[in-house]
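User: Predict the structure for this protein chain, please.
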Amino acid sequence: MLLKEIESFLEEDIGHEDYEEIVPYTNCKAVITVKEEGILAGLDEAKQIFDYLSVQYSTEFEDGARIKSGDSILVVTGAGAKILKAERLVLNFLGKMSGIATITNKFVKEARKVNEHVKVAGTRKTTPGFRKYEKKAIAIGGGDPHRFGLYGAVIIKDNYIKLMGLESAIKKAKEKASFTKKIEVEVESKEDALMAAVSGVDIIMLDNMTAAEVKESVRLLNEKGLRDKLILEASGEITIDNLKDFASTGVDVVSSGMLTRSAKWLGFSLDVVE
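Assistant: Here is the predicted structure, written as structure tokens:
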């Protein structure tokens, strides 16, 4: 975390009140405990917040660990005012990031029951200002963060195609994009998938198609000898319930906004014990 990020997060929560005039500086010990099973994420951020406030800590865990209800994640010691100033911010990082890591891990395990090589990726359906932490949590859970923003790759989406036409949009992207960037095109039919493949894009996103339609598109690209030159991604309304259907179609990547949009926070609590 950047110093300015920590300060901004603390200011958002505490504001300009002199909180330390209310809570005593008495030295104390507190324990952060998890209330349910999952994958731990956000621990590094919690440590950095405590470091900033000169609170000491110890832990037997690290990000990516599988945790269970009742586990003591962090033991912290220091001024009570400092510990309580950090409490909500630290618990929010742990709860949100661990929730994302947990659902991602569940998706990865489910997908690899039918395709051990498939990647499970996130999307840009993220919380403004918190994207890099949500993407990090996806990676901790075993998923792929996908691009971090528009700058990460050139993706020709449906509205681009409506404005420019598929062939024209691909041509323009190939003219303007750096050789260091991959070009991905979003299609909703096997015919457009074939056109995009012939046009020489790097990645084809088979979007808002049924699993059967995705499988047929993969078959067609194989038949035309184009499959091995491409990365194929399935996306659009993919849930834990239909995930295996899409993972078994032969695509390389399955992406889902549910990893960030629908992740349930894990419960953590901080309790003063001494």
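The two ends are 30 Å apart (CA to CA).
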